[in-house]
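Exercise 3.2. Students should predict the tertiary structure of the chain below and write it as structure tokens, then compare their answer with the key that follows.

Predict this chain's 3D structure.
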Amino acid sequence: MEIGLYGLGRMGGNMVTRLARGGHRVIASNRSRGPVDEAKGHGAEGAYSIEELAKALRPPRVLWSMVPAGQATDDALEEMAKHASAGDVLVDGANSYFRDSIRRAAHYEAKGLRYLDVGVSGGIWGLENGYCMMVGGSQEAVDIVRPALDTLAPPNGWAHFGKSGAGHFVKMVHNGIEYGMMQAYGEGFELMHASEFSLDLQRVANVWLQGSVVRSWLLELAERAFEQEGSDLAAIKGYVSDSGEGRWTINEAITHDVPMTSLAHALFARFTSRQEDSYAMKVAAALRNQFGGHAVKKEE
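Answer key:
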């Protein structure tokens, strides 16, 4: 099939390469020229604007956006819509908020365009391993994009979950669970690192990967990190950002009265990681001093 993909970052660039390797005609575009030239070296055709991208494709076009969620996605989709024809499919592959996807679908379908929200998981490893993809939107649009989905995903690695917003909703919850898993591994390895046993944490991770109930791809990545950085992870600062999905997941949990204690803790732990010195802990230290006479450490 023919497909145009705009946004050649860490995932988008690799997706273009995987599609080209799969025999599709891929038009690759990006805000800056360098990634487009690189994509051409991997079998894609280049376009240096969204207008040029759309003109290079025959209707019904598939125009896939892989830029960051939020305003950048809105801007890319609006530009795509300006150069699209009735029946073309706009695909948002960012980690977009599912309610934004519902809004965008209604907006573009009113213009005669089809719209899909596709949650994509796989990171930088997706080029070789394939991408897990969660799709929302009309069946008609899915059928048009299906050959690309089949190429991008490993066997049984994508599914259509229903109406617009469903794909990004499932991806949102996926990322919320990921927060909790990462926090659980982090806390467990911290306890082992603090113990009296001088444990080789890479070896612990490797043993756990051999049939234990906590084995996972994240644990494989932990083993890789310990191999590269050492058990102390001395070169890595303990600062963990978030791109919104954990917050959205907790907001939806509150809306639906669903208890999500582990995920909420994992999200707030990320906030803690960004504090050079926690004011809340200053208050706690002062209170211990006041009621029990416990010593406090003063700022130098």
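Discussion points: The beta strands are 2-6, 25-29, 45-47, 62-65, 89-92, 114-121, 132-137, 158-160. Residues 166-194 form the longest helix (29 residues).
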